[in-house]
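Weekend entry, working from home. Most of the wet-lab plans are on hold until the incubator is repaired, so I used the time to fold the two sequences that have been sitting in the queue since the last round of cloning. Logging both here for the record. First:
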Amino acid sequence: MKQLFLFLAVGLASCATHDPAPLLPSLALPIQGDTWNLTQQTVVATDHLSRVATTVTTTPPPGAYSIHFDAKGMYHVFTGGARQDDYYAYDGKIITLLGAIGASATRELTISSVTAAQLVTVEHGEDNTATYQSTSTFTR
C-alpha cells in the first residue's frame, strides 16, 4: 500500500527540467492558488504476463502529500516536510509536470474533474512488470 502511494509521490517529482511556455491567464485557472492536498489515491496495476488487475485505494494522512501551482508556472510538492519546486504547464485539461527528482520523464496528469474545492486527476504509467492507472483526488 505504501509502495503505491510512493508511485505518485516519486512520480510527480521525477521529470526532466525545461522551461515551458508562459501560461495564458485564461488557462491558469482553476488549479492555481491554494495548496491541493492528496486525500485519496486509487492505483490499478495490471500485470503484463497474467493481465490480472489489482486495485489498491489509499487515504494518506493529512499533510502527507500536497502540491501547489503558482501563477508563475511553478509547482511546489510537499511530502512529509520535504519540498520540491519545478515548472508545470497547463492547457485546461492536462497538467504537465516538468523537471524534478529521480527519473527524467515528464508527467502528465489528465484532469477528470475540477471544482473550487476538488481536483481529480488520472495518470498512466508502466514499468517492467505492470501498467498502472492512478486516480488521485486532491482538495483545497
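Second, folded right after the first finished:
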Amino acid sequence: MDEARAKGLSLLLAIVSSIILFKAWLHLRKPHVRYPPGPQPKFLIGNLFDIPKDHAARKYLEMAKKYRSDIIHLSAFGQHIVVLNKLELAKELLERRAQKYSGRLEAPPMKLLSVSIPLDMTYGYDARSLEDPVVVAATKSFEIGGPLMSPTGSLMNIFPFLRHVPAWFPGAVSQRKCAEVACLTKEVKRIPMEDFKRRMVSISVVRSAIHLTSFRLVLFEASGKPSPSLVYEFLESKSTRIASDEEEKIIANVAYTVYGGAADTTISATASFFYLMVANPEVQKRAQEEIDSMIGPDRRLPDFGDRPALPYVEAVYRELLRYQPPDGLGLCHLLSEDDDFEDYFLPKGTRTNFSQSDFLMKVEYSMEMNASWHMGSADDKNKMCVGQHVASSTMWMIIVSVLAAFKIEKARDEFGNEIPLNDEFADDGIS
C-alpha cells in the first residue's frame, strides 16, 4: 500500500512539473506585453513568494507606494492578480467595465465555505456561549478554511485539476482540510435546524371550504409564541402546505450563508472597537459624555430611536469601519476577457481586487483614529454591502450599549500594572 501511494505521489509530482514546464514554454512563446508595475517575477514560480499571506491590504498599499503606481500586478504559475489601490481605478474597471469584471472566483475551497446574532436572526437559535456546538464548529471551519482562500493558500487555486485528487492521497493536505470544513459546515446547518424543529409543533389538519383535505403548517414555540427568524418566516409563508425536503435544504443553505457572512466580520469589528477605545480614551470619554447628556436622568440604555441624537457615537461607528475594515480587499472579481487599461494589458482570468486602504486612510495614509472626519458627512455608497442595514444596526447597538454601561481600559497584571496593548491586527482574510 505504501509503495502504491509512493508511486501515486511520484506520478502526481510528474504531472504538476509537466504542467509548470508547459506553462513556462507557453509564456516564453507569447509576444511581449506590458503588465502593470509590480515585483519582478521569478522563473517558473512568478511572484509566488511576493503574494501576501496576511495583512494583504496593507502590504499591497506598500507595494503601490514602492512602485509608485495605483495598480499593481503579480502572477504565480500563470495566474494573474491585479490590485487596485485607488477609488477612481476601481470605479473605472469594476463599475464602468463591469461586464468584463463581474466574474467571480470559483476556487475549489470556496465551494466548501460559503455568532449569535446571525444565528438568532436566521434560526431563532440562542447561542449563549463560545462553547456552543454551532459556534465551535463555525469558528473552526473559518479557521481551517480561511487560509485556503488566499491565491497561494492551496495548490488547488493554482492547479484546479487537483480538486479531483482524493483526500487520502499523499500530500493532499488541502483536500483533507476541505473535507473537514465540509463536515463542520454540515454541523453548522444541521444543529440549529434540528433545534428549530424541536421547538416547533409542525402539523395540524384543516379542511377547506370545498371539503378537500389539506395540511397547514402551524409554527409556534413550546411557549406558544413564535421566535421571529429567517427560517420561521420562510416556513410560515409556506403555511398552506408542508415545506418539501428540497425547500428545507435551500433555506438551511441560505441561513448558513447569512451566518457565514456576518459572524466573522461582526467579531472583527467588535474587537477593533474595544482596541480603539482603549487606545483613544479621549474619544471614548467624549462619546460617553454625549450619551449621558442625551439620556439624562432616565438611567436607561440607548435604543435605535436615539441614534439621530448621537452624532459623535455615529462618527465613532463610521471611523471604526474606516480605520480597520473587516475585509480590506473585498470580494475578488474575475476578468472574463482580455482587457487593455491605459498602457497595460490585463489577460482573461486575472483576479482583480480593490484595496480599500488608500481610499479609507485618505491620501496621507493616516493610521490615526479621527472620528471628527465623519461629523455631518454622508455614507459613501461604495463602502456599503447588501447587508449594510443589519450590520449598521448591529454594530451601532453594540457600540452605544458598551459605551453607556462600561469604561474600557487596559487590562492589568497581578500586581495592578497596566498591560501594554498589542497593536498588531490578526489577519486571515478577515482582520
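Plan for Monday: verify the second prediction. The chain has 14 helices and nine strands.
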